[in-house]
Amino acid sequence: MSSRTRRATFMAPIVRRQFAKETLTRATIVPYPDNNTIFDAVADGRADLMVTDAVETRWQATLGTGLCAVHPDRPFTSSDKAYLVRQGDPAFLDRVNTWLRGAMSDGTYQRFARPWIG
Question: Is the pLDDT assigned to residue 45 strictly greater than 80?
Answer without folding.
Answer: yes
